[in-house]
Design goal:
The protein has 32 helices and 8 strands. It has 4 domains: 3-121, no CATH class; 126-271, TolB, N-terminal domain (Rossmann fold, 3-Layer(aba) Sandwich); 289-394, Serine Threonine Protein Phosphatase 5, Tetratricopeptide repeat (Alpha Horseshoe), CATH 1.25.40.10; 512-723, Serine Threonine Protein Phosphatase 5, Tetratricopeptide repeat, CATH 1.25.40. The chain has helices at residues 3-12, 15-39, 44-67, 93-119, 147-164, 175-179, 188-195, 239-253, 262-269, 273-288, 291-307, 312-328, 334-351, 356-373, 376-392, 397-407, 412-425, 430-442, 446-459, 464-476, 480-491, 497-509, 513-520, 529-541, 544-555, 563-575, 578-588, 604-616, 620-633, 644-656, 660-672, 700-723; strands at 68-70, 76-78, 134-137, 141-142, 171-172, 199-208, 211-220, 226-235. Strand 1 (68-70) and strand 2 (76-78) form a beta hairpin. Helices cover 64% and strands 6% of the residues. By secondary structure, it is an alpha/beta fold. The radius of gyration is 34 Å and the shape is globular. The strands form 2 sheets. Strands 3, 4, 5, 6, 7 and 8 form a 6-stranded mixed β-sheet that branches. A two-stranded antiparallel sheet has the order 1-2.
Length: 732
Amino acid sequence: MNLRRFLSELKKRNVVRVAGVYTVTAWGVFQVAKTVFETLEFPKWLSASSLLVLALGLPMAILASWAFEVGPDGTIRRAAPAAPDDTARKLGWMDWGALAVIAVAVAVFVASAFGLARSLGGEAPGLGGAAAKSVAVLPFASFAGGADSEYFADGLTEEVTNSLAQVPDLKVAGRTSAFYFKGKNEDVRDIGRKLNVAHVVEGSVRRSGQRLRVTCQLVSVRDGYHLWSETYDRTMDDAFAIQSEIADGVADALKAELKAEGGERDRRARRNPEAYALEVVAKGQVRRMGKAQIQSAQAIYRQLIDMEPDNAEAHAGYAFATAYLVQNHLEGDFLPAVRQAEAEIDKALKLDPKSSSAYIARGLLSVIRFIRESDQEAERTAEASYRRAVELDPRNPEALSLYGDFMAGRDPKLAIPYLRRALDIDPLDRIANNALAGALVAIDRPAEAEQRYRANIELFPDYVDSKEQLGDLMVEIGRLDEAVAWYRLAAQPQTDPAASIALANAYYNLGMPAEAETAVEPWKAHPVVGRVVTALKLLVAGDFQGLMALSRAELAKPQADPLWRAGVQIAGAQLGEYEAAREQFLITSPELFEPRPQVSARLANEITGAAYVIARTGDQGQAQRILQATLEATAPKPGLRQPTARRIARVKAYAMLGDNERAIAELRAAIDAGYRQLVDIDGFMRLDAYPMVAPLRADPRFKALIARIEADNARMRQKLLTTGAPTQVVAP
């Protein structure tokens, strides 16, 4: 092609100028149409359609100007091509300017098209990509003295957040993320960027007797402009009305329709004002998660149940607080607490079968029973309960994160989307962040998991769970000296006995028994943990007679903690008291005695112990069926990391089946993957001390692998003694 002649032909036929005029005109028409559509709140597809129609008109205008020309008399005729000897016409500055306009218009069109396409699936972007209809409710400031006033302000913040979360087309940042900024004087633009919202709600609460003054404003993150504000001077009788009016005001300012059920709002508005205020305070206390606060919330929920026996949320709240206290703070006797919580959950679901809070409480309680009782049915109930909570309230980040956290240990690929959805709503949810890190470990991405734990620690330096779980990761990948560093930090506040026990276990593996005993020393006087510490010392010392005596004494007590059944099982297997151990397995794991035994991969190590006991009591066939089921349940899956604990369960299973070759291969693979925890965390016993591996003890390959672990741990012990451990968290 002769480019010079082609440009001359464009000049002759006025193609460039026609295209330029069309582009400028079309863009102006689109801007006017877009403004009108947004003002009248027409659907976004109208804007996208108008842009597409106008864009398609450009090539049509170019083709028409090429094919036809307007004569001096106004007639339209076909354009004749230039003769070969015609003088070429040069493009002038207006032509080149028109070409530039067209190029810019095409680029803008492409960008706009992509933007509109994205916005068809959601709200138009605001600051930093945040949806225009997005908001975070920051913790209301309390201008009255006393802890209850602050809890009331926190609870009122949560109630407003919950009300706004019911608006279908409004994105509301989760409460955990919003409460991260409590007491922090950060710029709203930084808050908006961190929470990915375009607006924030700020407020203050002042209580004086029965008088209540609430000030609230909706602020644009982009420019700090107040879009709406209101001050409420009422009595405590109007506390619920204030919450509803704030939600209505914010929704109206953002042009989001608040579609709450009228009957439900009327019912709640008729509540006893004192009961509503108490519930708000209880929710504010639960948010703190400290032992004293949870105990106070539990007492308030008990009071609420007496005041409002038909309040499903009060029953669910009491159950949740009771379960949390008995497990996370080891307060109260286990079995009575479980029964109380179960009864309150049943009442809540009878009053409101669609209570997401009740299903969350049932999920938590079932997880606790699975942990303490090794009850596989409880594991299935936990999964079903959390899943139902998500179905009932799919925008509830707490339900999403708890379900994702639980599923991370069963099906991490399924768990990750739920956890990411929770973090999309509540980006600073520390529980969801920890759970996502755990899921990343499960899909064999430990480096990413470590980064996420470290980021969580930097954001929440007082949150011990992230430090403890980072320590667990270090154990999993064989860096026990680094695990000690994080366990120490987690154990320092002496609020979580699990951190101290994990620290002691790491010390025992590193050959530092004195340090291990020091780690658990602060818990010796605790009414529950103290006896567990005694049992751990008996296990490490190999005093199984002492362990059996202690476990039987504990089980003889009224409302005995089922935890001690495991003590009889372990001691019985070591002492040859197989019938006693079998009796306890019949209670804790009846599904193992079925013709087709059911095996949970998370309980694989305990189940190999059951198989050993069953074989020793004469039922070799059932023992072999259990071992085969264990191997099937713990079989490696593509794309997933095989946890070392499950590899060790396979070592025991193969050894009992007489397949030493595969047992050695599994142990070697476990060591290559980072297994250095020769003294396990469940039984506080060395691998080579378990009777299940007796067929391997004389094998020189087994001895060499054990020696390799010990040598590596000795090197880590020396490194730890040389470098010490950090006393504060260093940012990643």
